[in-house]
Design brief:
By secondary structure, the protein is α/β, with parallel strands linked by helices. The chain has one domain (2-175): Lipoprotein like domain (Double Stranded RNA Binding Domain). The protein is 47% helix and 31% strand. The protein has four helices and five strands; from the N terminus they run ααβαββββα. The chain has helices spanning 2-18, 24-32, 47-64, 136-175; strands at 35-41, 68-69, 77-93, 99-114, 117-130. It has a five-stranded mixed β-sheet with strand order 2-1-3-4-5, with helices on one face. A hairpin with a 2-residue loop joins strand 4 and strand 5. The protein is globular and about 60 Å long.
Length: 178
C-alpha cells in the first residue's frame, strides 16, 4: 500500500504538468501584474474590521497569488477594495427568545483597471458565530472573527474571478479585439 501511495505521488506531478495545469498565481500575474497596491474604502460602521479585511486581502495577494505589495507609485495595478456592507441576522435563539447564533454577511467590491478597461467584481461571504449571553466581549470577538472569515470567502471568489478574467483576456487577444 505504501508503495502504491509513493507511486501515485510520483505520477501526480507529471499528470498535472502534462494536462497544462497552471496555479491561479500564474493567471493572476497576467491580470494584475507583479506589483499591486491595495486601496481601501472602509465601512464606516466597522472601521476596525475593514482594516482586518484589507490585511486579509494583502495576505492573499502575497501568499496565495505570489505578487508583490508595493507603493501606489510603483504599482502595476491599484486594487480598490470597497467594504460595502456588513450585516447580521439571527440564526438561532434559545427558549426564552435570546439570540444564540448569528450569521454575518459581508459584501466587498473589488475594482481595478486592466488594459485601459475598468474591471469590477462584487462578492459576498457569510459566516456564523455564537453569541454569549454572559459576556458581550466574547460575542464581539466572535463577530469580528466571523467578519474576517466571511471576507475571506469573498476574497476566494475574487481570486477565482481573476482566473476567468485571464481567460477573457487571452480570448480577446486571440480574437484581435480590445
Amino acid at each position: 500500500m505504501k508503495r502504491l501511495y509513493s507511486l501515485a505521488l510520483l505520477i501526480l506531478p507529471f499528470f498535472l504538468v502534462a494536462c497544462g495545469y497552471q496555479p491561479i498565481a500564474y493567471y493572476a500575474k497576467n491580470v494584475l501584474g507583479n506589483n499591486v497596491f491595495v486601496e481601501l474604502s472602509p465601512n464606516m460602521e466597522n472601521p476596525e474590521d475593514s482594516v482586518k479585511i484589507k490585511d486579509a486581502v494583502n495576505e492573499a495577494i502575497a501568499s496565495r497569488l505570489h505578487l508583490n505589495l508595493s507603493s501606489k507609485e510603483n504599482a502595476d495595478t491599484i486594487l480598490k477594495v470597497d467594504i460595502g456592507s456588513i450585516t447580521n441576522s439571527i440564526v438561532s435563539s434559545d427558549t426564552q427568545g435570546f439570540a444564540t447564533f448569528y450569521r454575518v454577511y459581508v459584501n466587498i467590491t473589488f475594482s481595478f483597471k486592466n488594459r485601459n478597461k475598468d474591471v469590477t467584481f462584487t462578492n459576498g461571504g457569510y459566516y456564523d458565530y455564537a453569541a454569549s449571553l454572559n459576556n458581550p466581549i466574547v460575542t464581539d470577538n466572535n463577530r469580528s472573527n466571523a467578519i474576517t472569515q466571511a471576507a475571506k470567502q469573498s476574497i476566494d471568489k475574487f481570486i477565482s474571478q481573476l482566473g476567468y478574467q485571464n481567460l477573457r483576456l487571452q480570448y480577446e487577444n486571440a480574437d484581435g479585439s480590445n
